[in-house]
Amino acid sequence: MSKSIFYHAGCPVCVSAEQDLIHLIGKEKVEVVHLGEESSRIEDAEKAGVLSVPALVTPNGNTLHINFGASLDDLKS
Amino acid sequence: MSKSIFYHAGCPVCVSAEQDLIHLIGKEKVEVVHLGEESSRIEDAEKAGVLSVPALVTPNGNTLHINFGASLDDLKS
Fold it and tell me: Which domain of life is it from (chains A, B) (predicted)?
């Protein structure tokens, strides 16, 4: 099974959601991407339908926006 | 380990998120509550910090709001 991708930007809301989801889903099944540090991956996130972080893109391509930390536009500057 | 609780109200956004999360976390680890049908449980959801559905309350008590289907206030009428 392919991995889910958890996109975040290091904000407290993101970190809290990350810890919970990794615990629930299993660390080996989730790739974690920090868009604040890896801005080259913002484009991938947008293509997957991510509008804000934290967000989880599931193996079947659905994007789940979780709580609300920051919009992707805020990460581009 | 205690279960997570997934609160929803049957809307398309909820059902899509439900299928994904149950698949990722495992059906046996998630209790699903339809607040449109079980309105007596809205109070529990509110106590857990749920503001809108779909939402996942994790075993350690954190509430993750996922995408946005409906606010709890809309389910009370």
Answer: Bacteria
| ipTM attached to this prediction | 0.82
Count up the domains in chain B and report the number: 1
B9 and B34 Cβ atoms separated by less than 8 Å: yes
- Count helices and strands (H / E) in chain A: 3, 4
CA distance B72 to chain A (A): 15
Q: From CA A33, how far away is CA A39, in angstroms rounded?
A: 10
* Per-residue pLDDT tens digits for A3-46: 999 999 988 878 888 888 999 999 999 999 999 999 999 999 99
**Any idea what the CATH number is for the domain that residue B20 is in?**
3.40.30.10
Host domain of residue B20:
4-75
Q: Which residue in chain A is spatially nearest to B50 when comparing CA positions?
A: A67
Report pTM. 0.87
A64 CB neighbours in chain B (<8 A) are 17, 20-21, 66-67
